[in-house]
Amino acid sequence: MKKRLIALLLLALASLGAALSVGSLEISLAEWMEILRGEETLAADIALKLRLPRALSGFACGALLAISGALMQSLLRNPLADPYILGVSGGASVGALCAILLGLGGLLLDAFAFGGALAVLLLVFGLARGDGSWTQTRLLLTGVMVAAGCGALVMFFMSVAPETRLRGMLFWLMGDLGQTANPWPLLGFLGFLLVAILPLAREITLLGGQGMESAHALGVDVRRLRRVIYFLAALATAIAVTSAGVIGFVGLVVPHLTRLVVGNDQRVLLPAAALSGGALLVIADTLARTLIAPELLPVGVLTALLGVPVFLFLLSRRETP
Q: What contacts 150, CB < 8 A, 6 or more positions away?
């Protein structure tokens, strides 16, 4: 198992290396030697000041979405669950599009997006509790309905928006890493998430594999665990969506693919999913920057093009993970 984790780590490092080297201006090995010697060159500025923050942000967002997807699939015991299933992305989209419609950008846009995601997180959990308790079905149905309402608001904002702002709205909705200038808050939260969730990995494995009753019989505090999973997964999704927009299929496909490699033990699955999700999003963003350079594609388009055939392949297997 350690060898497989090391292989995923090497894949992640290779994806970051490719992201720094490939683009409209490719950086050769000789130029990398100059960069490593500390020489100030155009290649150094491009690699370290432009591409590195974007690549690290992409890695962190992909890792957050993959971990969130794995947690949601365990929480709901549903292989089709993904980070967006409870409407958090819809809330972030409403907040972001509202900010764009008002002509806001930068930190204010991020604040609106995060505020929308946080509002939906609290709304869904509050409505799903009902009489003081909640089930997977009630939580899922509440999230789907709130997400549908957010989708209607998104369509309304786009229908009344001036044409000059529609392109920015579309890029945000399809995922765009171009605005992620500072990756360190994302990487810091990723580290916090792993530190917070890994001690609970054994209990999450029991909850996802055995169900609530069996996990409770084995000594798991199911009510507390479900709340922790929900809030951490939703918060990770909110931060990723706030930073990079709505990027689909990473949180849905990566946990399935990772299970094929490392199994269903969450103590291994969660860090493996983080490495796989980060590497996938970095690769997709590199392709988005280079396929039709100097034009840029929304990274969400590439993740969908990569994710759809992979997921259909998984569904065609006799034993779907």
A: 87, 90, 91, 93, 94, 120
In three-state form (DSSP H/G/I as H, E/B as E, the rest C), the secondary structure along 184-251 is HHHHHHHHHHHHHHHHHHHHHHHHHHHCHHHHHHCCCCHHHHHHHHHHHHHHHHHHHHHHHCCCCCHH
pTM of the model: 0.89
Domain total of the chain: 1
Whether 31 maps to a domain, the answer reads no
**Residue 48, in any domain of the structure:** no
Spatial contact of 76 and 85, defined as CB atoms under 8 Å apart: yes
Instruction: Give pLDDT, residue 318.
Output: 47
Q: How far apart are CA 74 and CA 281, in angstroms?
A: 22
CB 193 within 8 A of CB 68: no
Task: For 201-218, write each residue's pLDDT tens digit.
Answer: 988 888 877 777 777 777
* Residue 42 within a domain: no
With cut-offs at 50, 70 and 90, classify the pLDDT of residue 194. very high
CA distances from 31 to 12, 34, 35 (A): 22, 5, 6
- Write out the residue range of the structural domain in which residue 125 sits: 55-315
Q: What is the CATH number of the domain that holds 118?
A: 1.10.3470.10
Place of tokens 């970051």: 16
In a domain, 160, yes or no: yes
What are the pLDDT digits (tens) for 9-19? 999 999 999 99
